[in-house]
User: Fold this.
Amino acid sequence: MSSDYLTSNDLNMIERLLGEIREQGNFRHLDREFVAARFLIANFRRSKTSEKDLRSLLAARIKLQDATERGLNSWDNEGGVPAKRVRTEAQRRIDNDTDGTRRRAKGTEQRNRLV
Assistant:
């Protein structure tokens, strides 16, 4: 492309390509369309002006974006992290503090207490 400006024919081609990926209905995925439009314009600036080439690049981009969204959605549905194992063994609490563990913990807590 000789300049950074898009002609009306270029914009019509971008609109046609966006129409192919546009979701029908009341609730459209506008973020997806916005990203796709910016992607097409960026490729125009890199002198990729063939509709066939842009269509294949856009299809690959949308495929990658959909796979990423599916992965993130499944991650969110799983809670984001694997569940921690439940401890099966019982923990025994000794009444006497012969080794001084509780005494040291109390001393540390008192030293670090905010006034």
Residues 17 and 55 are 7 Å apart (CA to CA). The radius of gyration is 29 Å. The mean pLDDT is 78. Helices lie at 8-21, 30-45, 51-77, 101-111.
